[in-house]
């Protein structure tokens, strides 16, 4: 026991442990950094990027790190690259780690919700901001446990550096044993030092997992919110104050001859639509008729084959001749559009509180000061009746509350036009009422709205104009009275079918 304790505190062994930690930290940092870019490249849509990266990962994952280390140590000098044993071992461990980290990070990125990425793009987030503020914080929760295992595995792999002469912990233990033959106390003490190091790593992993845990985030958010002064600084929102005569008001959105195809199948066919300031336009149509595609196209979220979309002279997703903008120009193009959107499945950022969700566009796209963003966001939450839920995370809200946060998020950015993509179809009937009520109040303010829905009664109550789509074409449009007197047989059949389904649902 005395020998064991002596070697457990033996400076010579701890100096070896420091070398092992240096190898660990260097290899892990390089592995994560390079692995992150490899993870992105391995999901590239270009095969000439994807295939070489996948091959690299395949080769490194499929061969022993010891072999790689010996190869690197002996091959680099052939090319005139002479490194110390420590640098060679560090390089070999790091290169091996890049492959494993790339796969762990790729798994984390793929586990994040695509709707949330699409929402970030719709709001005008750049790709980098989408990564930093939406994808990575959520991917981290999936990545951390696996990365913790990987780190402990790497700590143990540092012992392989001894084969090229790095005098780290294992090699030092062997050196002592070769002189005093005290196998058990020396080797057990070395093992004890590895255990102490891996316990510290496990502690770090536990802390990080706790830090990124959603309940912990909610607790911190509540504590932060409680510390803030009562919001005397609520901003007045720049919503339109009056209702325009929607028959004569100037157009704010002009969709001209829009054609969209998915895999060669026409989904929108030469669709043209003009929306005037303050108008509430309701899109109706069977499932698959192209309503969502039209709304997404307005925000340049779908590739279009021809046509233009403009909001008061600002062309969305193309130049004035309909030539598509390069992907790198789309975020700024969307950010300038003054168009907000509310999604069918809410697409709230899961890792952010209701308040942070509502602040997100103001902070990340509009570059607002945090205090101003907070005040505007609180104002928007008040408008939808959720000021008391500011510190709640999405998973702590009901479906109806989530959707009202989604509406507040779009409203806080003070859009000229608000798009609603079937905002109530993911909700239970009793929750539909609260969201419909919120939209009705908004319609009274005079904000321009385009709403895709299957709810005919709601359409009749809120619309200035009803637009009926079938198979991607605009078949009929007119005032809400066309819901009682459709002009085309297609619209009449659709209404008959929807009204029958509604009656059946009410009787059920
Ligand atoms: N990403 C996609 N890839 C391929 N096809 C798609 C894609 N998105 C939509 N489509 C197709 O485009 C057509 C129109 O879909 P869209 O979602 O716009 O219809 P919708 O009227 O909004 O339907 P719903 O009322 O069910 O939401 C459908 O045939 C759909 O299968």
UniProtKB/TrEMBL annotation:
Q: Which UniProt keyword terms apply here?
A: Amino-acid transport, ATP-binding, Cell inner membrane, Cell membrane, Membrane, Nucleotide-binding, Transmembrane, Transmembrane helix, Transport
Membrane association type: Multi-pass membrane protein; Peripheral membrane protein
Q: Which PROSITE patterns match?
A: ABC_TM1, ABC_TRANSPORTER_1, ABC_TRANSPORTER_2
Q: Does the keyword Signal apply?
A: no
**Record has Nuclease as a keyword:** no
Which family does the similarity line name? Answer: Belongs to the ABC transporter superfamily. Drug exporter-2 (TC 3.A.1.117) family.
> What is this protein identified as?
Polar amino acid ABC transporter permease
């Amino acid at each position: 026991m005395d020998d064991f304790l002596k070697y457990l505190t033996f400076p010579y062994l701890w100096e070896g442990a420091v070398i092992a930690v240096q190898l660990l930290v260097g290899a892990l940092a390089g592995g994560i950094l390079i692995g992150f870019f490899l993870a992105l490249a391995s999901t590239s849509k270009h095969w000439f990027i994807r295939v070489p990266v996948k091959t690299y990962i395949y080769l490194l994952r499929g061969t022993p790190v010891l072999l790689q280390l010996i190869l690197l140590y002996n091959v680099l000098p052939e090319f005139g690259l002479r490194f110390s044993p420590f640098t060679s071992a560090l390089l070999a461990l790091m290169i091996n780690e890049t492959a494993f980290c790339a796969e762990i990070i790729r798994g984390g990125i793929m586990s994040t919700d695509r709707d949330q990425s699409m929402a970030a793009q719709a709001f005008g987030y750049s790709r980098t901001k989408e990564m930093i503020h939406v994808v990575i914080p959520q991917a981290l929760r999936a990545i951390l446990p696996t990365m913790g295992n990987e780190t402990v595995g790497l700590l143990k792999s540092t012992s392989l550096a001894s084969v090229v002469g790095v005098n780290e912990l294992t090699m030092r233990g062997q050196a002592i044993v070769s002189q005093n033959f005290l196998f058990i106390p020396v080797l057990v003490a070395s093992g004890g030092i590895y255990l102490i190091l891996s316990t510290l790593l496990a502690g770090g992993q536990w802390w990080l997992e706790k830090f990124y845990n959603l309940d912990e985030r909610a607790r911190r958010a509540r504590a932060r919110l409680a510390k803030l002064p009562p919001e005397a600084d609520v901003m007045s929102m720049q919503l339109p104050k009056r209702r325009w005569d929607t028959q004569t008001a100037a157009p704010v959105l002009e969709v001209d001859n829009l054609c969209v195809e998915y895999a060669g199948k026409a989904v929108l066919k030469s669709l043209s639509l003009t929306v005037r300031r303050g108008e509430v336009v309701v899109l109706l149509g069977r499932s698959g008729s192209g309503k969502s595609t039209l709304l997404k196209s307005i925000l340049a979220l779908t590739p279009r084959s021809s046509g233009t979309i403009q909001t008061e002279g600002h062309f969305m997703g193309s130049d004035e001749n309909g030539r598509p903008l390069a992907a790198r120009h789309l975020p700024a193009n969307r950010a300038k559009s003054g168009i907000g959107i509310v999604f069918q499945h809410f697409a709230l950022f899961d890792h952010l509180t209701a308040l942070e969700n509502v602040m997100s566009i103001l902070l990340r796209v509009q570059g607002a000061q945090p205090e101003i963003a907070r005040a505007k966001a609180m104002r928007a939450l008040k408008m939808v009746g959720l000021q008391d839920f500011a510190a709640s995370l999405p998973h702590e809200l009901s479906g109806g509350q989530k959707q009202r946060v989604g509406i507040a998020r779009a409203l806080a950015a003070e859009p000229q036009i608000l798009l609603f993509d079937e905002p109530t179809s993911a909700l239970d009937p009793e929750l539909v009422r609260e969201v419909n009520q919120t939209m009705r109040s908004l319609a009274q303010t005079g904000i321009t709205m385009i709403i895709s829905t299957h709810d005919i009664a709601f359409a009749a109550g809120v619309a200035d104009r009803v637009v009926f789509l079938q198979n991607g074409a605009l078949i009929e449009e007119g005032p809400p009275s066309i819901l009682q007197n459709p002009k085309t047989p297609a619209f009449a059949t659709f209404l008959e079918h929807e009204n029958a389904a509604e009656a059946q649902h009410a009787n059920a």
